[in-house]
Amino acid sequence: MNRHPSGLVVGIMRGLAATAVLVVPMSASADSEQARSQVWDIARGGQLYDDWGKVLGKELPDTTHPAYPASGKQKGSATWRCKECHGWDYKGADGAYGKGSHHTGIKGLRAMVGADPKAILKIISDDNHRYTEAMIGRGEMEKLALFVSLGQIDMDQHIDRATRKSRGEPGRGAPTYQTICAVCHGFDGKTLNFKTPETPEYVGTIARENPWEFMHKARFGQPGIPMISLITLPDTTLADLLAVAQTLPEK
Ligand code: HEC
Ligand code: HEC
């Protein structure tokens, strides 16, 4: 247990549900019928990490982020997403972005697990990051900081980095996929095509090609669209879900 600077008592979690988290609601304002849970804030922070522009309905700046290295292969608005520099596995240069078209050499955020969200908030708006309150409002920045401090998991525990294979069991993941994801993505994962008819990209494609992205999106939801967040399920259940998604068709 950890007493938070804000007075909230939370279980530092690795898989929220796994360590029964005690969530003390934020001070309820007169007009809110139900107090927002801290877990909801963390989930929102996770989506902001993915793409704050889509979450907030804003355009990301179209100039390349000043901290993005000249040697990097991305440019423009994409370089303003947190994940572009720090990775889907939060390990930056020490993780999956250690090589390939998203390589930047920038460090990850794993050292910030459990850090004071106020200190994280300062980093996000520092001269290196240059996120202003006009871009990401103060309340949303606080959620981002909560995600960095309390919402990360160690993806290497669930995904073999070399083979990209989930360490979970497809048989155990099938019920989760079929009862939660299939309503939108289809039993075979082909109801939603994220790309074009000629070069389709399905949930099975992402699961195989970028299992870290899959895990992040399954835990927090897809920014800007009504997709659910599975953050309250144990990480191992999500690894099982990833395992079954890796068996779904790509074509
Ligand atoms: C264009 C690249 C880039 C983007 C995008 C970016 N960062 Fe960073 N971030 C960096 C660099 C570079 C450092 C290391 C700075 C240093 O060590 O002086 C860093 C460091 C950090 C740290 C401190 C990590 C540590 O262990 O010291 C945190 C926390 C952080 N970033 C959060 C975020 C968040 C949240 C976002 C999205 C709102 C974000 N960053 C977007 C480049 C980026
Ligand atoms: C309520 C409907 C709904 C549910 C339930 C749902 N999704 Fe989604 N999901 C979507 C929509 C809509 C998109 C965006 C499709 C697009 O961008 O073309 C999406 C996108 C995704 C993406 C990312 C595509 C990308 O690269 O941008 C992944 C991964 C994903 N879903 C996985 C899942 C998993 C795993 C589950 C079950 C835990 C799930 N989804 C449940 C509607 C849903």
From TrEMBL:
Entry keyword set: Heme, Iron, Metal-binding, Signal
Top-level taxon of origin: Bacteria
UniProt keyword Repeat, yes or no: no
Signal peptide range in chain numbering: 1-30
Residue span, Cytochrome c domain: 168-249
Key word Iron present: yes
Name of the protein in its database record: Cytochrome c domain-containing protein
